[in-house]
Design brief:
By secondary structure, the chain is of the alpha/beta class. It contains eight helices and eleven strands.
């Protein structure tokens, strides 16, 4: 079974969608479209009656709504439907998900947090999960050698199709999460002759025939659009 990402043009590059129930890493530099891609992803799920969890390490629900305000693909309506749940790790209301052990230390609670996250997904019937982002996770777990790897590995146990956002600028510099994930999608943006060029590249997708070429991406009123027939050279 495959799930549609909701990003116009992208699913034709991956045999109609992402294999369901797997972990995918969405990477790219700032401003390349990671948040917009993720918004399409949960909007698509909500439009199909699925439940989503958007777990942010830095943005609030209102900040994400503000960021999507300029697009007309229906993100705010999907949020209002109640099918997209937002949690910020540093805000009130996340106790059920993020409570750690008796020490009360967030960093020392990686085992507890990962277990609680998987349990939360199961308990609330979450179909799609977005975690924004791996950079903040690495900050929380930087004092434990294998904590981040343990956390990402635990995500693979969650019965949900998961997008883990990763801030990186070099698609050839693979990190732990890229090796552990079932798929890696990279968003590009670069200046050439004074103009900004944007692209998307599927570097890895298990069980899917991909070519890893970079396709043109553009932002418009409808959000992020992929042009599968337009290849870019970086």
């Amino acid at each position: 079974m495959r799930v549609k990402t909701g990003v116009p043009g992208f699913d034709t590059l991956v045999d109609g969608g992402l294999p369901a129930g797997q972990l995918y890493v969405l990477s790219g530099p700032p401003g390349s479209g990671k948040t917009t891609f993720s918004a399409h992803f949960v909007h698509q799920a909500a439009s199909e009656g699925e439940k989503c969890l958007y777990l942010s390490m830095h943005e609030t629900r209102s900040e994400l709504l503000d960021a999507m305000e300029g697009f007309d693909f229906g993100f705010e309506k999907a949020v209002d439907s109640g099918r997209i749940k937002f949690l910020n790790v540093l805000s009130d209301g996340s106790e059920e998900l993020l409570a750690t052990g008796s020490t009360g230390s967030f960093r020392s609670g990686v085992q507890s947090m990962s277990t609680r996250l998987v349990s939360f997904v199961s308990k609330h019937g979450i179909d799609r999960l977005v975690i924004d982002s791996s950079m903040m996770l690495r900050y929380f777990y930087d004092d434990e050698e294998n904590a981040f790897i343990q956390f990402v590995t635990s995500l693979k146990r969650a019965d949900a199709t998961t997008l883990l956002i990763s801030e990186m600028t070099d698609p050839s510099s693979y990190t732990d999460e890229h090796y552990l994930a079932s798929g890696v999608i990279f968003l590009h943006n670069y200046l050439e002759e004074g103009s900004m060029h944007r692209g998307i590249q599927t570097l890895k997708m298990r069980g899917t025939n991909i070519d890893a070429d970079i396709r043109e991406v553009e932002f418009a009123s409808g959000g992020l659009t992929v042009h599968p027939d337009r290849k870019l050279e970086v």
